[in-house]
Write a structure and sequence with these properties.
The protein contains ten helices and no strands. The chain is mainly α. The protein is globular and about 60 Å long.
Length: about 280
């Protein structure tokens, strides 16, 4: 089994969440962006692993039914595992008042999902996300004078910031070993344009059919497109690729996309939000 499966990522839409926190973004758009950012990496990781396993199998003909079953097992199996273990952990934490024990239970929850998902070939990220959504949306405080839930959130926010810092430091160090990066700036630029166009189309098409259900206006497409920030997991996946003649091209493209996303999109997202909201207000 592909070794990357055994790496446990804890991630949260930090970049998007921090940027839109103080913006004038409507509540429904904020919910869409935050939820999409939360699940994007998980689904992308599952697709990556599924496609790579099919390629590494050495079969010239792709069995679409087998691939679909593999993808369904990874996605739905991971979600179900996360919900079940999240429910058990939530019940245990709710019956305990000792904060140290609650923290240990939360750590045990993450490790249990990682071990079980690895054994049964399920998605670890989706399992952890599902467990977090289930347990995080329900307070474990037994009364109004207890603050265990709030303290647990602060603990995991600290862990999250530390892991993200370590990840991006490692990404920076890895760039020292990529002397070929300057040779593929054109490929990186094309990759950025293609990804932006693909994201715009992926939002435009569903919005055409679900516009009334989601209560989203067409002017919001620019916000949703520009808010599609890419982070460390994209590079981590590229670094996990086997050695091939095309690995350097994929790595360079990934680095350019992530750098553009963090620096350009991240720093200008609030301006895009303000401009789009101003345009809507002028139309009204």
């Amino acid at each position: 089994m592909f070794a990357f499966r055994r790496i446990n990522f804890t991630y949260r839409p930090v970049a998007v969440g921090a940027i839109i926190k103080n913006s004038k973004l409507p509540v429904n758009l904020e919910t869409i962006i935050s939820g999409e950012s939360l699940f994007n990496d998980g689904i992308g990781l599952v697709l990556f692993i599924t496609i790579l396993e099919v390629i590494e199998s050495g079969n010239n003909q792709v069995d679409f039914i087998k691939t679909a079953l593999l993808f369904a097992r990874e996605v739905f199996g991971g979600i179900i595992l996360g919900l079940v273990l999240g429910y058990i952990a939530f019940k245990l934490m709710k019956s305990i008042t000792d904060f140290q024990t609650i923290v240990l239970l939360s750590l045990a929850l993450v490790m249990s999902i990682s071990v079980i998902a690895t054994i049964f070939h399920l998605s670890i990220p989706l399992g952890v996300v599902s467990a977090g959504l289930f347990a995080g949306n329900r307070t474990i405080n037994q009364d109004s004078n207890e603050h265990s839930h709030q303290s647990l959130e602060k603990f995991w926010q600290l862990i999250d910031e530390m892991l993200n810092t370590i990840l991006f430091v490692m990404i920076g160090l890895q760039m020292v070993n990529l002397p070929f990066l300057n040779n593929y700036w054109l490929i990186g630029g094309i990759a950025v344009i293609v990804i932006l166009i693909a994201r715009w189309l992926s939002i435009m098409l569903p919005l055409t059919f679900l516009r009334r259900t989601l209560h989203v206006k067409y002017n919001s497409i620019n916000i949703l497109t520009w808010a599609g920030l890419r982070g460390g997991i994209s590079i981590a996946l590229a670094l996990s690729l086997p050695i091939t003649p095309y690995r350097h091209i994929i790595l360079a493209g990934s680095y350019f996309v992530v750098i553009f996303s963090i620096i350009i999109q991240g720093l200008t997202l609030n301006k895009v939000i303000d401009a789009s909201i101003k345009g809507v207000q002028e139309e009204e």
